[in-house]
Automatic annotation (TrEMBL):
Residues 171-274 form the Fe2OG dioxygenase domain. Monomer. Pathway: Alkene biosynthesis; ethylene biosynthesis via 2-oxoglutarate. It catalyses: 2-oxoglutarate + O2 + 2 H(+) = ethene + 3 CO2 + H2O; L-arginine + 2-oxoglutarate + O2 = guanidine + L-glutamate 5-semialdehyde + succinate + CO2. This is 2-oxoglutarate-dependent ethylene/succinate-forming enzyme. Gene3D superfamilies: B-lactam Antibiotic, Isopenicillin N Synthase, Chain (2.60.120.330). Its EC number is 1.13.12.19, 1.14.20.7. Belongs to the iron/ascorbate-dependent oxidoreductase family.
Amino acid sequence: MNSLPIIDIAPLYTADEAAWLRVAKQIDAACREWGFFYIKGHPISASRIAELKAAAEDFFALPAEEKLRIDITKSAHHRGYGAIATEQLDPSKPSDLKETFDMGFHMPAEHPDVLAGKPLRGPNWHPQVAGWEALLQQHYEDMHELSKTLLRAIALALGIDRDFFDQRFEQPISVFRMIHYPPRHTASSAEQQGAGAHTDYGCVTLLYQDNAGGLQVQNVRGEWIDAPPIDGTYVVNIGDMMARWSNDLYKSTPHRVVSPLGVDRYSMPFFAEPHPDTEISCLDGCHDAEHPPKYPAVSCSDYMLSRFAETYAYRREEANA
Ligand SMILES: O=C(O)CCC(=O)C(=O)O
Ligand SMILES: [Fe+2]
C-alpha cells in the first residue's frame, strides 16, 4: 500500500518468452494498482547519467539571457528552455519552482511535416554547452528504445499484439526533459511546489531523479507517499493517453515534487508519446458490455496541445488568440 513495486526488466533483453510474460504480469499488476513502478535492469549506464547530470548543471548555471536564447515560449514546437514559473502544473497553486530544458524528435525545418505546420514537429534548440547536442541526441534515441521495450511488455500485458505500439511510436512526439529545482527559501509559501500535483499527458514516463528526494505519488486513499530515489532505477508511470487507451484499466496517478530545502534537485523525465497523428481510442480487450469505452477517440497531437494550454499561460493565450 505504501511503497511502489520495483521490477527487474533485464529479462526483456533476452528471448526467453516465459520470462517476458513474468515481467509483463508484474508490470500489469503495477499499472492497475499504482500506475507507478520502479525499473531496474535497464540498459542506461551510470556513466551516461553522470554525464547528463554534469551537462544539466552546466546549462542551468548559465546566465538567464544565455538560457533565454532558446526560450521555449518562442518555439512553435515546444523545444528549449522554460524559465522558473513558466509552467503551472497545479492551477490551484503558485507556478512551479523549476526550470526546464525540452527536446523532442528532431525534424529539420525543411521537412514536409514542418513546412506544413504540423503541430509539435520541428528542429530541436540546443544551448552552447560543450558536447551537449551529441550527448542528448544519443540519449533521446536510447530512451526511445527503452520506452519501446517497455511498451512491448505493456502490449503483452494488455493482451494486444506485442508490436502494437512499435509503428505508432515511429517519429514520435516523445520529449526528453531536464529539470532543475532550486532550493526553496524557508520563508516561501508552504503552497509553493517544485512541480504541482498533476497527471502526465502521454503514454509512459521514465524518470531519472537525483538523490535530493521530493517526488510524491498519491495512493488509492489519496495520501501522498514518497517515491524516494533508488540508485540505478528509473521511476516509470502511466500517463493520461495510456489511461485512455486502456479505458482506465491502467491508472494515470497524480504526483508532485516538493521543492528541496537547502539543495538543488535535478531530474530527467522521458515522456513517451506516439506519432502526432495516432488515434487514441479504447483498445480491444479493454472494454466489454459492462465497461464501455469511457473516452471519445482523440488524436495524439490534439490531446497534447489541449493539455499544454492548461498548464502554460503563453499556450493558453495562443489557443485563445
Ligand atoms: O521531477 C520529477 O521528479 C517529476 C517531474 C514530473 O512529474 C513531470 O515533469 O511530469
Ligand atoms: Fe509528471
